[in-house]
Amino acid sequence: IRYAEGKGWYDARVEARGPIPMDPATAVLHYAQEIFEGLKAYQAVDGGITMFRPDANAARFADSAQRMAMAPLPEQVFLDSLHHLIDIDRAWIPSGEGGSLYLRPFMFGSEVFLGVRPANEYLYVVIASPVESYFSSGVKPLTVWASPTYTRAAPGGTGAAKCGGNYASSLIAKAQAAENDCDDVIFLDAVERRYVDEMSGMNIFFVYDDGTLATPTLGTILPGITRESVLTLAREAGHQVVERQVGFDEWRADAASGRLREVFACGTAAVITPIGTVRHPGGEFAIAGGEPGSVTMGLRQTLVDIQRGRTEDTHGWVHRIA
Ligand code: PMP
C-alpha cells in the first residue's frame, strides 16, 4: 500500500514476492525512516487460524511511525492487510507444534529526495512466510553476553520504537556475543551503564525465591507484547511482579546468594526461554545451575496453550481468522 502526502493511502495490492525497484535517492536508503513488526498466524488445535494480539502490534506500529515522523497507517488497515494475506496463504500454514505463518509488516520512506526531513511518500509492505518451530531441539537455556561496550538506546532516543536502525546498531554487539560463545547480548542502560535494559530481540524477567518477579521499566526498551502478556499471566498466577530497574551487579549478587531463582527472556519468536549463564568481561555466573526453572516453564506453557487454543483465552488476546 502506498502513501503520498495530500493523497493518503492508495494502491493496495497483493503480489508474488519479488524485488522492489528503487531509485538510489530513495529516502530510506539514506536517513533510515523504516519501522516494522513481527507476528505469527497459527493453526489452532480446532483447525481454525489465529493470531495473538495483532491489535497490540498495530498499536505499536502506530507508535513507531509517530516516533520516526512517518505517515500514520490506520490500525484497521494494518489488521486488514494481515487478514487478507492469511486468507490467501491459509493452506501453507504448518500445523505442527511450533509451526506458523510469520508475518512481517514494514514501512519505509519511499520518496526520492536527498534531505534530512520526513519523507512525503511511504510504502507499507507485508511479507508472509511459513516457519517451523524456533526451537528445533527443545527449550535450551541461553548463555548471554553482557555487552561492556555498546548500548541499544538512550533516553530520548528510538529504543521504544521498532525501527530498523535500532537493530543495525545492535548487530556489532550480537557479533561480540557470538565471539564469546553466547547466544544473545544483554544491553545495559546508556546513562549509568549499570541497569539491565533488554536483549537484541527479547525482554527479560527475573524470578526470586519469594515468588516475586521483576522486569525492567519501560522507556528505552521495546514495549514487548510478550512482556506485557507475561506481566498479566504472572500476576494471575499469584506472583507479585514489579517493573523496576534491575542492576547488573545486583543480578550477579542475587544469583550468587541463591535469592534469584530464574531468569528468562521473552518475545514473539521464542515466546519464553530460560537464561542459564551470564558471561561478561570479568567472568561468568550461572542462574540456578543453568537449568530451566519451574516458573519460567510454567508461564511458557500457559502462554503457548493460550496461543494454540488449548487453554481458554480469558483476555481476548486470541484473534480468530474467519
Ligand atoms: N525487545 C526487542 C529489541 C525486540 O526486537 C523484541 C521483538 N519484537 C522484543 C523485545 C519482544 O517483543 P515482542 O514480545 O512484542 O515480540
Model description:
The structure is a single chain. This protein has helices at residues 28-31, 54-67, 75-89, 164-179, 225-236, 248-257, 294-308, and strands spanning 2-4, 8-10, 34-36, 39-43, 49-52, 100-109, 121-131, 142-146, 184-188, 196-199, 203-208, 213-215, 241-243, 260-267, 271-280, 283-286, 318-321. By secondary structure, it is of the alpha+beta class. It has 2 domains: 2-131, D-amino Acid Aminotransferase, Chain A, domain 1 (2-Layer Sandwich), CATH 3.30.470; 142-308, D-amino Acid Aminotransferase, Chain A, domain 2, CATH 3.20.10. Strands 8, 9, 10, 11, 12, 13, 14, 15 and 16 form a 9-stranded mixed beta sheet that branches. α2 (54-67) crosses α3. The two termini are 23 Å apart. The model has no long low-confidence stretch (mean pLDDT 95). It binds 4'-deoxy-4'-aminopyridoxal-5'-phosphate (PMP). The site of 4'-deoxy-4'-aminopyridoxal-5'-phosphate has 12 residues, from α5.
Summarize the structure.
It holds the Pfam family Aminotran_4. This protein has 322 residues and is an alpha+beta fold.
Mean pLDDT: 95
**CATH architect. name of the largest domain:** Alpha-Beta Barrel
Alpha-beta classification: alpha+beta
- CATH-defined topology of the largest domain: D-amino Acid Aminotransferase, Chain A, domain 2
The CATH superfamily of the largest domain is identified as D-amino Acid Aminotransferase, subunit A, domain 2
N-C termini distance: 23 Å
Number of helices: 7
Q: What string, H for helix and E for strand, traces the elements in order?
A: EEHEEEHHEEEHEEEEHEHEEEHE
Bound chemical compounds: 4'-deoxy-4'-aminopyridoxal-5'-phosphate
Query: Strand tally, please?
Result: 17
Protein name: Branched-chain-amino-acid aminotransferase
Catalytic activity: L-leucine + 2-oxoglutarate = 4-methyl-2-oxopentanoate + L-glutamate; L-isoleucine + 2-oxoglutarate = (S)-3-methyl-2-oxopentanoate + L-glutamate; L-valine + 2-oxoglutarate = 3-methyl-2-oxobutanoate + L-glutamate
Cofactor: pyridoxal 5'-phosphate
InterPro entries: Aminotrans_IV, Aminotrans_IV_CS, Aminotransferase-like, B_amino_transII, BCAT-like_C, BCAT-like_N, BCAT_family
